[in-house]
Amino acid sequence: MIETTMAEFLAAHPGLKFTFFGGKGGVGKTVMAGALALALARSGKRTLLASTNPVHSLSGLLAQDVYGAQKPVQGVPNLWAYEIDTKETIARSKNEIREKIGWFLKYADIRTKADEFVESATMNPAFEESAMFENMIDLMFKDEYDAYVFDTAPTANARRLLGMSSVYSLWVNKMMQSREEAKTLKEKLSYSKQKEEKDPLMEYLITFRERMGHAKDLLTDPQKTAFFFVTLPEALPIAVIKRFIHWFHDFGIPVGGVVVNMRIDKEALAADAADFVKNRVAMQDQYMREIDDTFDGLLRAIVPLFDDEVRGVPSLSKTADLLLA
Ligand SMILES: Nc1ncnc2c1ncn2[C@@H]1O[C@H](COP(=O)(O)OP(=O)(O)O)[C@@H](O)[C@H]1O
Ligand SMILES: [Mg+2]
User: Fold this and answer.
1) Burial (CB count within 10 angstroms: exposed 0-12, middle 13-18, buried 19+), residue 68
2) Is 56 in the pocket of ligand 1 (CB under 6 A)?
C-alpha cells in the first residue's frame, strides 16, 4: 500500500535538491534516476542528471551522447546530463595524492620517493569509488542547478563519510593544535621574526575538514536530500535495500523512499499465459506482501514491467509518468 506517492513526496519537499538512487545491479536505478530528473525538469527546475557510475549508461538511456561534459538533453528543456569520465577523475586524484604524500614526506623529513606510497594508496579498489565520490561533491558544491539527480547512490562512501567525519575532525584539530604549538616554539626560539612559512599540508587539512563538514550538512538535510531505493518484487534486491536503509537510518541520511520496479501487470495477463509467467506473478505477489511489511510508509511507486527496455526520451517520459502517478 502506498501511503505517500512520489508526487506527494516531491510536493511536500519543494526544496529537494540532491536525490540519489540505490539498489542492486539491474533493478532499474539508472532508469528511475532518469525518470525523476525528467519529471523535475518538467516542473521547471534546472536539473542535472549525473552518473558517477564507472559503467556508463546515461548515454544509452537517453539515446544521446552525454559523456565527459554537462550537456543539454535534446528534447527536454531544463535538463542536462553528465556521464563523468572516470579515467580523468582517477588520474587527477592520483596526482593530488602524490602531491599530498610529497608534502607529508617533506614535513616528516623522510627522504623516500612518494611513488611507492601512491601506488599502494591507489591500488585499493575503494579508491575509484572515493574519486567518484569527490567528483560528486564537487558538483554539489558548485551549485549551478536547482536539482541534481545522481544515478547510483554512493552507499558505502556516504556511510563512510558520515561515520568518519567526526573522527577526521578530531584528528585534524589535534594535528592543527600540535602544529600551532611547534610553530610558536620556533618563533620564540628565533631572534629575528621570520617570515611565516606556507604550510600546504595544513592548509589542505583545513580545507578538507571544511569540505567534509559541508558535505555532511548537505547530505543529512532532509529538506534538501533524499536517497531513494529501487527494488524488484524479489528476495535479493529486497534484502539489499533492507540493509542500506538500516545503515542510512543509523547515520541520519534521509531516505526518500522505495520504488518497486518491473511489477508484472496482472490485468494484461492472458488466461492461457504460460505457467512460468503465472508462477512469476504468484512469486511477485508474495514479495509485494513482504515489501508492504518491511517498508511500511516508505513505498513511493510501483512501476510495471514494460514490453521493452527503457531507451530514449519518449520511453523515459512514459516511465516518469508512471513513477509520479
Ligand atoms: N519497468 C521496466 N520494464 C522493462 N525494462 C526495464 C524496466 N526498468 C528497467 N528496465 C530495463 O532493465 C535494464 C536495467 O535497468 P537499469 O536502470 O540500467 O538498472 P541499474 O541501473 O539498476 O543497473 C535496462 O535495460 C532497462 O531498460
Ligand atoms: Mg545503472
Assistant:
1) middle
2) no
